[in-house]
Amino acid sequence: MLLLLTLLVPLVFALLLCAVPSGKTGLHKTLATVGSVVAFGVSLALWFSFDKTNPGFQFTTNWMWIPSLDIGFRLGIDGMSLLMVVLTTFIFPIAIIASYDSIRDRQKMYYIMILLLQFGLLGVFVSLDTFLFYIFWEVVLIPMYFLIGIWGGKDRIYAAMKFFLYTMAGSLLMLVAIIYLGQYGQNGGFTGDMQKLMTIAPTIPMDAQQWLFLAFALSFCIKVPLFPLHTWLSDAHTQAPTAGSVILAGVMLKMGTYGLIRFNLQLFPQASLHYADLIAVLSVIGIIYGALVAMVQTDIKKLVAYSSVAHMGFVTLGIFSMTAEGVQGAVLQMVNHGLSTGMLFLLIGVIYERRHTREMSEFGGLAKSMPVYATFFFIAVLASVGLPGLNGFVGEYLTLIGAYLSDHLGSKLYAVVAASGVILAAVYLLILFQKMFFGPLAKSENSTLKDLTGREIGMFVPIVILCLWIGFQPNTFLSVSETSSRAVVGVIEGLKGENRYADVAAARLNPNAPPKPVPVQGMENMKIAPPGTPLPPSPVPMPSSTKEPIRVKVPAGGGQVQLPPPKR
Amino acid sequence: MTQTDFLAGLPIEIISAFALIVMLTDALVERSTRLCETLSIVGLLGGLATSVYLHLTMPGQTAFGGMIVVGGMSTLYDAIFCGAGIMTVLLAREYLTRVGGMYDEFYTLLMMSIAGMMLMGHSADSMPMFVGLEVMSICFYVMAGLMRNKLSSNEAALKYFLLGAFASGFLLYGIALVYGSVGSTAYSAIAAKAVSTQFPTLFWVGIGMMIIGLGFKVAAFPFHQWAPDVYHGAPTVVTGFMSTAGKAAAFSGFVGFIAPTMASAAPGLEKAKVILALLAVGSMLVGNITAIAQSNVKRMLAYSSVAHAGYLMIGLAAGNAAGWTGITYYLVAYLFMQIGAFAVVGILERENGGNLTLDDYRGLARRRPGLALVMSLFMFSLTGIPPFAGFFGKYYLFSAAIQADLTWLAIVGVVSSVISVWFYLGLVVTMYFREPLGEWEGGDAGISTRTALALSIIGTLVIGLIPQVIINIAAR
């Protein structure tokens, strides 16, 4: 019920807003803010009542919607989705508060769109039905399209159309894949039930699995965006209003990476192994290419947009390392990127409201006129660069470790080349900071700029706190997603005959079996072994009576996956 | 004619009777428009009610020597025709009065065409199907030319008549050839003979000509050339009616004659499937790509209706149960969203084709926020974005194709849906993102127009959110 409440709060407030007459702008702001804060509150309750040791999905609902097609209103979260849900509910109040001054036109519609966007995004992260997932995936499109198209910059129409066409092209292919996948359901009929599909999907013939993998991956990689599918991003980011960019970078890009883990890794483990190198190569290209392109930008917002391409490359690299470290790092990096890049976009919005330009050459010496602003900007830059002690470091480190140690990727070079991307990030972000804040106050407009107001400081402080928190105590967050990451990795390792996480994976595939508590520790559990050495002792006590590893047996002719009975 | 025959034909009889009553009222009563309007709605509701009653009391029974079936799918078709009729009647008076085409004969023609459509939906034999098609088409020819002092309307009527008569010829000749090889015009007999056909060439030539004739009526590529001019020239309410109910009727005939044959798994059927699939591909791509280039909203919707015929033909090509369900569902969804879209166009339209270009829609969101919102809803639904009705329609059709091992066809459908984003959303862009040009008037709607609009909005949303309603009936 709690989950359903989190999902419905934004929708209810959006409907309430519809009833308010359009003249009462103050009430619109209040209602939207209250709505998003209430959603955040409910999601915190979700956070504290979440059982970290349970590898299955929690807070599930299972209501039939279209019985003849086995499509249901199925919701549920694991650790990874919980992190995404809380990230969403955390970012939205800040994005709404950031819009108070910058949005003056058609305010009622604006706040309705923002709340609908939140509804759609939350829906994506909590659906456990492929069909429902697709619906939420598309629901997200419409409000974002209006946000860019109505309240955007000069080339907003071009950007909005490009955004819509790119995403729609990908998502419709995903629809074909969803239908195709669903046809393998029980008795030859369609099913949208993710939990059923998790056992059915690995039994699909390999060539079909590969096509399905590609269709899903294309849709998700457009959203991420993975090189070379990223060209919509810089247009959408530069033209979107500040709140739009924050949400786009902070949450929407994560829909793609979330989908890659939830669908591609979990449903098509064999195909994932097959295509891991392809995605890893593209990720690494994205990391380097994004950084290089960011380096030559003169528009601040474009620079940060391209840095997103680079940063999301780490996430996809971590995911397709398919190690517990890599996936954990990717999940954490999804949160990190949401926080630090979201904050950078907010900061750019602040200066844009004051100066109405985003050209780097228009600034210089701002540290003198806006010292508080400069401080926050510096924190955001450092978080984005990945300075130890701030959030970015932990995530990037884990993804690189994962990529380096992965048995599933063909080369250690991915990690090595990707690591150089960290240096490049430092180069372009520090140059940006230097050009904007140091040097003489050359332009007279810059010397009279007002420093941050109380409201603006109020937006940034929670983000900074979280950045520091993740930097110093990442276990608070890592432990939430640990079980679910292991369950995902466990299936893939099972294919290769390794058994570190086999029982977590098995427990997830068998939701009806009584949940087996899994000891959850934090990072100290992630033993890093150099290649070639024997496997570290499993964190899960293994029976000594049998030497035989637990394997997921996939019958050649299709049919049910046969799982060995859980061993104690 | 036995009692069963009389009962089975009751919905059609009621509507025909009311058509005659309306005609007499028009002749005998002065200023009869409102009376005719009321009588038409009463007649349509009566026809619908009897059809539902028959569905409950004698489902699946045949009458007139097996030429007509009662209940089941045909009831759903009746609901589509009567629903489209009621919405059109609600929209007609205000619009036709404004653009100068208000003749009370309109109601008679509308009712007559619906009687023809219902005959098509009920038929289990090619002969009543052809008769129904002709009744419907002849009414359409006149309705397209309703604004008789407008050149474009006359052009539409003449073009439609000449080409339509030609297509009817094809259909009839096809029926004759099939009869020649099979010895019967009944659908079931055709299907039975298709399995053990002794005159393959003659038989398949006949089937091919029937596909051409019906393909013309549904405006499928390459028989779609008439559609843009006719849809553009005809009064907007008539266009809305023709493109939904007319298409639905033609598809009811199509499905009726092709479904038993498809189920028979006859040799040579694969070829027919490929031909239907190619027609679908052509319609989707040509319709959508040409629609991009249109600057007139009515023409744009006309070309897009060619594309929608293409989506529907995916269901024919799939030729399985999911396909027939999908077609029926899509027809219902299309009814609401297309009539709704044309209702908005009609509300905005002024005399002599005013307010019909895309430029006239610039900044509509500022002038008429309500209308712009409603139009966007229909556009999103026509594009196939969830949770609106259009999405589920496409979903069922694509899944039918995938079930029939025609995944490539589903992918072409998807690609053409992406193409359609360009112009459907282009209209939303025009309404919301662009600034208005110059002075502008219009956009007022009376109570009956509002009712019709509300019906289409509710329909688009409700069957989008609860698709099970239609599926349960259609899957019988």
Summarize the model shown.
The complex is a heterodimer of chains A (568) and B (476). Chain A has helices at residues 2-19, 25-48, 79-102, 107-126, 130-151, 156-182, 194-200, 206-223, 231-239, 242-267, 269-295, 300-321, 324-355, 366-369, 371-385, 391-405, 413-437, 444-447, 454-472, 475-495, 502-509, and strands at 58-66, 71-77. Chain A has one domain (2-480).
Name its key features.
heterodimer, A: 568 residues, two-stranded antiparallel ribbon, 2 strands, 68% helix, globular, B: mainly alpha, two-stranded antiparallel sheet
Describe this protein's structure.
The complex is a heterodimer of chains A (568) and B (476). Chain A has 568 residues and is an all-alpha fold. Chain A has helices spanning 2-19, 25-48, 79-102, 107-126, 130-151, 156-182, 194-200, 206-223, 231-239, 242-267, 269-295, 300-321, 324-355, 366-369, 371-385, 391-405, 413-437, 444-447, 454-472, 475-495, 502-509, and strands spanning 58-66, 71-77. The longest helix of chain A is centred in the middle third of the chain and has 32 residues, at 324-355. The two termini of chain A are 33 Å apart. Residues 521-525 and 527-554 of chain A have low confidence and may be disordered. By secondary structure, chain B is mostly helical. Chain B is 78% helix and 1% strand. Chain B has helices at 3-8, 10-28, 33-57, 73-99, 105-122, 126-144, 151-182, 187-195, 200-217, 226-233, 236-263, 269-292, 297-318, 321-348, 364-367, 369-383, 389-403, 407-433, 447-465, 468-474, and strands at residues 62-63, 68-69. Chain B has a two-stranded antiparallel sheet. In chain B, strand 1 (62-63) and strand 2 form a beta hairpin. In chain B, helix 6 packs antiparallel against helix 7 (151-182) and helix 7 (151-182) packs across helix 10. The longest helix of chain B is centred in the middle third of the chain and has 32 residues, at 151-182. The interface between A and B is medium-sized, with 31 and 30 residues.
